[in-house]
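Example 9 (inverse folding). The structure is encoded as follows.
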């Protein structure tokens, strides 16, 4: 404690000095796991409520802010980002339908800072329903809409609203006609997955348990329960329908999450039981009229061992997306009245494509199917013998946005590396029309951009897909700054996606590259498993291979190469850096997982054990230690420049992970290159960030990369 107190005195004296970034004193904590001694010199930074920790972090954040703001090209870049970002009249977020075909959607006009909820009827008339700025006017903090669900008849909409990027949402029910909030808000509803019953006056939702004083943070996402809520009544009167020890017919352990869905047109409710972030799910069915009553006769449809990852309901049948018969997935069908996985019928067989998502509309089963990094839309009409491609206006990535069992067709988005998203509707004849819901801005379909798809040989011979985007006139002479990204967890694939703000990088000669490293789902389940737990090293080794390819093909040199990874992508870029510090000029972990050994002790740690492992098992501990960038930092190594970006209200990855990594790198590196901790005290994991916050973050990492890759307009005068 004396060391910390002495440090606080020094900090107060030097916190604002730009030439002397305050160092946090190391106080090593050692633990032994299965005979292996693990050092943790900056464990004290986990105590984020400690005033000395808070003061150090604030000094670091202020220093980072001042450093970035002082870069000669920063302000011009930020203005250009704002111009690009605000060049379209509106940006559309989530889209939903009611049973009458009315569209409910999120939209942010160019001059606005947050997404707002609107409704558009069949005649094209629009009305504003929910404005999160109303909450900011009430308490002064920025708010965001996390999710929304219109009632089947479209008269009500349930909306989740949270503050300052926290994602700690409460459910508000809003009358569509009057815009008035009905009843009391329902708190502790971060991931409720609201499902309205056919009466349009009640819905199922998942609620977190109340954390009482003294309860550990790891209890946050345990013992969650599903409830039935009647609009206008208090949450205390809600009916318990699923959860641990609720029904002997449904296995729900404390770490599981049980959602209940009432699918339109079906007599059955389906309970979806998840084990945190594990892809495999368990499903149960019961007559809808029995749910919420004593003795609900739940029947198991599938268990976690049945290799099912998603489902869709049509009448009394349930369609299951499964890798049981192929790592690229098939679609199986069984009955909700008498489900039997062993006799489930294959309705969409395996192919070279990877089946990604399914949705049941009135006319057909719609499917997203990945073909390399492209994603197609397929349609299997009810009663048809097979699924056919929907003819799309252009190649890119199609993703389903909205559909209903009572309505023909579906709404989907289509985007590419060089063209922004547009929103289309497909009807029962497979005809596609542009809804014009998402307008194209002046910079949303630029001329002169090239997107190239290649496969890069990794350390073990695996061919890893790499997407490369740049200006057509680019010269392969090694002089170009390159931003390489990779993720590689949960089976999430980096699909073609365009942002107008990316032009701020590309028009200055930058190259943007995306590697679908192992751990993604680009080639299906096997590719995902090849980057999970003990196989995690493939993830960062694949990124290293992509970096070496870009250098070998003369896109760039190591002095002009930067890497960026967000969230679990922090593992990817953090370990690529610690394994090959000589290969990169700059590294940018954004809300990154950097201390994998201690992560499971956080609020979001338990749900992530299925994905990354636990230190309680020897093989998984060793995998976690291997993927923990913080524990791989070595004294005296010349590390590249690092910009660690984090929102202080992050509920998914605690910001102390970035703080510990910053402190460790600042103490260890011999390169003299900057290690900056860039904190936003009104942000979280990125969900709910305002337009201005996103613009500032982009300006931060682009300017940092331009600075560290030697671009003349960003160099400080000596």
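The amino acid assigned to each position is listed next.
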């Amino acid at each position: 404690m004396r060391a910390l107190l002495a440090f606080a005195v020094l900090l107060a004296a030097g916190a604002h000095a730009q030439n002397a970034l305050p160092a946090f004193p190391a106080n090593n904590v050692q633990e032994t796991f299965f005979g292996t001694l693990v050092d943790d010199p900056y464990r004290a930074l986990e105590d984020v409520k400690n005033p000395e920790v808070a003061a150090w972090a604030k000094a670091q954040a202020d220093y980072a802010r001042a450093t970035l703001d002082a870069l000669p090209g920063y302000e011009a870049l930020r203005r250009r980002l704002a111009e690009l970002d605000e060049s379209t009249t509106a940006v559309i977020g989530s889209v939903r339908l009611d049973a009458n075909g009315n569209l409910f959607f999120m939209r942010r006009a160019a001059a606005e800072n947050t997404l707002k909820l609107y409704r558009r009827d069949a005649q094209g008339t629009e009305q504003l329903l929910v404005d999160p700025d109303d909450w900011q006017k009430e308490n002064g903090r920025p708010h965001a809409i996390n999710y929304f669900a219109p009632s089947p008849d479209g008269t009500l909409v349930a909306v989740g609203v949270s503050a300052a990027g926290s994602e700690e949402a409460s459910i508000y029910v809003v009358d569509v006609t009057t815009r008035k909030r009905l009843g009391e808000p329902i708190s502790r509803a971060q991931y409720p997955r609201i499902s309205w019953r056919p009466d349009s006056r009640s819905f199922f939702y998942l609620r977190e348990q109340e954390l009482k004083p003294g309860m550990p943070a790891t209890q946050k996402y345990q013992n969650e329960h599903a409830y039935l809520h009647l609009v206008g009544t208090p949450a205390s009167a809600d009916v318990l329908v699923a959860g641990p020890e609720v029904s002997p017919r449904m296995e729900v352990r404390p770490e599981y999450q049980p959602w209940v869905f009432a699918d339109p047109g079906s007599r059955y409710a389906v309970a979806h039981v998840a084990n945190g972030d594990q892809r495999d799910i368990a499903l149960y069915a019961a007559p809808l009229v029995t749910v919420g009553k004593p003795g609900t006769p739940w029947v198991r449809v599938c268990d976690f061992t049945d290799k099912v990852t998603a489902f869709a309901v049509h009448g009394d049948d349930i369609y299951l997306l499964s890798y049981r018969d192929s790592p690229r997935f098939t679609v199986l069908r069984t009955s909700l009245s008498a489900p039997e996985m062993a006799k489930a019928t294959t309705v969409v067989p395996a192919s070279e494509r990877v089946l990604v998502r399914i949705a049941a509309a009135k006319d057909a089963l719609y499917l997203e199917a990945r073909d390399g990094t492209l994603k197609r839309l397929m349609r299997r009409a009810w009663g048809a013998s097979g699924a056919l491609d929907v003819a799309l206006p252009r190649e890119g990535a199609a993703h389903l946005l909205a559909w209903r069992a009572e309505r023909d067709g579906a709404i989907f988005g289509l985007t590419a590396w060089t063209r922004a998203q547009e929103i289309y509707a497909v009807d029962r004849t497979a005809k596609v029309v542009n809804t014009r819901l998402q307008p194209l801005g002046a910079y949303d379909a630029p001329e002169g951009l090239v997107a190239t798809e290649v496969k890069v040989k990794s350390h073990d011979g695996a061919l890893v897909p790499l997407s490369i985007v740049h200006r057509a006139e680019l010269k392969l002479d090694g002089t170009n700054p390159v931003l390489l990204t990779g993720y590689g967890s949960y089976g999430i694939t980096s699909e073609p996606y365009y942002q107008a703000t990316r032009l701020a990088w590309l028009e200055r000669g930058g190259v943007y590259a995306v590697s679908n490293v192992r751990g993604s789902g680009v080639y299906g389940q096997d590719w995902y498993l090849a980057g999970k737990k003990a196989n995690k090293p493939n993830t960062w080794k694949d990124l290293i291979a992509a970096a070496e390819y870009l250098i070998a093909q003369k896109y760039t040199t190591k002095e002009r190469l930067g890497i960026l990874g967000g969230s679990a992508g922090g593992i990817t870029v953090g370990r690529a850096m610690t394994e090959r510090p000589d290969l990169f000029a700059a590294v940018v972990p954004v809300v990154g997982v950097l201390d994998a050994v201690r992560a499971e002790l956080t609020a979001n740690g338990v749900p992530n054990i299925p994905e990354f492992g636990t230190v309680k098992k020897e093989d998984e501990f060793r995998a976690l230690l291997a993927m923990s960038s913080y524990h791989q930092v070595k004294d005296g190594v010349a590390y590249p420049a690092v910009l660690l970006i984090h929102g202080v209200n992050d509920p998914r990855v605690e910001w102390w992970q970035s703080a510990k990594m910053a402190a460790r790198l600042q103490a260890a590196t011999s390169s003299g290159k900057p290690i900056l901790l860039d904190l936003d005290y009104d942000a979280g994991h990125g969900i709910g960030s305002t337009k201005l916050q996103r613009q500032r973050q982009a300006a931060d990492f682009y300017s940092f990369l331009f600075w560290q890759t030697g671009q003349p307009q960003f160099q400080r005068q000596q």
